[in-house]
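Morning, I've got a small favour to ask if you have a moment. It would help a lot if you went through both lines with me. Thanks so much in advance, here it is.

***
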Amino acid sequence: MSYLDKITSPTLLLDEKICRANIKKMADKAARHQMKLVPHFKTAQSREIGSWAKDYGVKEITVSSIKMAEYLSRDSWENIHIAFPFNPLETGKLDEIAENQPISVQIINTQTAQILSDQLKNPVGFFIEIDAGYGRTGVEVTDFGLIEAILLIAKKSDKLNFKGFYLHPGHTYYMSDIPAIYEESRNALSMLKHKYSTEYPELVTRVGDTPGCAVMEDFGDIDEMGPGNFVFYDLMQAELGGCYKTDIAVCLAVPVVDIKKERNEILVHGGGVHLAKDVLIDEDGNKNFGEVVFLNEEGWVIPEERSHLKSISQEHGLVKASDELLAKVKVGDLLGILPVHSCMTADAMREYMTLDGNFVDHAEGISQ
C-alpha cells in the first residue's frame, strides 16, 4: 500500500533521504571547519531523527525546553544543552535529569546562577548566553561585571560547571547582511574566548542559527555550531539563501475539498492549526503561507508554475492556483504544502509520516 493511501486528513510528510542529506551536509561543513556540530533539536524534537544524526557523528544536542531535554535524554547523549535562559522554577526537574544524563543550561543573570548553586544536588554545566546585537536575550558582550559575577557564583559551587559562551545571532533571519552579522558574532566570541581562556582553558564558544551556519564559510575561532532548522529547512530558509526548495525535507499533505476555477482558488483542509501562521510577504504585499507541491509515490515534485496558500484560518487553507494546478487537481485529491517555518509546523502536527508509510515520533506527540 502506498503511503498516500493512508492519508485522509492533514499529515506532515517527512522525506528521510532529504533529511539525512541535510544532516550529513552540515556535519561535513562542521568537520571542514574543525568545529563540533551540536544540532538544535527544537525543530525535529524526535528520538528517531536523533538516531539518524548519530549516524553522522553527532554526539551532543541542543534543545529549547526542559520537557524536550527529558524526552530526548532516553538516548544517552554525551550532553544535552537547554538553549533558553534557564527557568529557576524547573530546578528540581533539571536535577532529576542530571542524575542520569549530562546536561547544561543557559545563564544570563546572577539570580538564576545562585538558585542553581543553592539547590542542585547533581552537577550541571552552563553556558553564558551573549547578546552581540540581536537584542532578544543574553548578557551584553561588554558587560564583564555581570559575566564575572556569574562566574564567581559558579566558582563557589561544586555543582555548576562553566562550559563557555553561547551566541544566537537571530537577526540573520530578518537582516540581509549575514556576513556583517557574523563578523560581529565572531569578534564578540573571539574577544571573550581570549579574555577568559587563561582562567578557563576548556571553555568553548558556540553559535547557533541556521541561516549563518548554512551560508557562511568564515567562522573564525568559534568552536561549535548549533543550527536547528537545517534538518528540515523551509521556505523561509530558501528565501534567505540557506537552502534550495529541493532541500526541504517536510511537507504537509492536505485534502482538496473545493475548487473555484473561475477564481483560480482551491480550498484545502489545512490551516493555522497545522502549519502555524508564519507568513512570507512579497514586495507587492501578497501573503504566502506555504507553497504547493505535487505528491507522488516517491515523495513530491515542485511544479513549474507556482501556487501558494494565500490565506489560512484555523482549519481552512485557500490556495491561489496556477493554471497547471487547476488542470490537474480535483476534489478529493491530496496536495503537498511546503511550510514557511518547519519548526512551528512540526510542533503543530506532533508526528511525521515517512514515505514508506511509517510514523516518526515527536516530543509533543500523543504516542511517545
Notes: The first strand starts at residue 11 and ends at 14. The chain is about 30% helix and 25% strand. Residues 171-175 have pLDDT under 50 and may be disordered.
